[in-house]
Write a structure and sequence with these properties.
The chain is mainly alpha-helical and 133 residues long. Helix content is 44%, strand content 0%. It has seven helices and no strands. The longest helix is centred in the middle third of the chain and has 19 residues.
Length: 133
């Protein structure tokens, strides 16, 4: 096989089955082949921060595959909930907490807010027992 290079952006257009076939071939290649990758180019094309982070993430994937083949399972990390910005999705009614109910107003405060204060000429408030007139 000659020294041909391939473009990752073009490879993205492959079908899922074609990608799986390439993964299978890659995983069944001799171990030394994996280390011969152009890590700088791979990191740049994939969008990784740098070649070292690409190597680490690839090693993590191999470790995960090895653990799965050995029958070990890695605990799944729970996905964190992210809050949506106000008005982002249009479903603000579900995300908005309901206001708490108050204890209510006393009789005197309720009468004042309903317009039944002592300055109006409507029905007078009945004095309570023990009040001096």
């Amino acid at each position: 096989m000659s020294n041909i290079t391939y473009n990752y952006e073009i490879a993205k257009s492959l079908t899922e089955n074609e990608k799986n076939r390439l993964i299978c071939v890659f995983l069944n290649a001799p171990a030394g082949v994996h280390n011969q990758a152009d890590w700088k180019k791979a990191a740049a094309e994939f969008g990784s921060a740098n070649a070292d982070s690409m190597k680490v993430s690839t090693a993590t994937i191999f470790k995960k595959l090895k653990q799965a083949s050995d029958g070990e399972t890695t605990p799944a990390k729970p996905a964190g909930k992210k809050r949506k910005a106000a008005g982002q999705d249009g479903d603000d009614a579900e995300d908005t907490p309901k206001p708490k109910k108050g204890r209510g107003k006393g009789k005197k405060a309720a009468a004042e807010t309903n317009g039944n204060d002592s300055s109006s000429n409507e029905t007078p408030v009945k004095p309570e027992v023990g009040d001096d007139l």
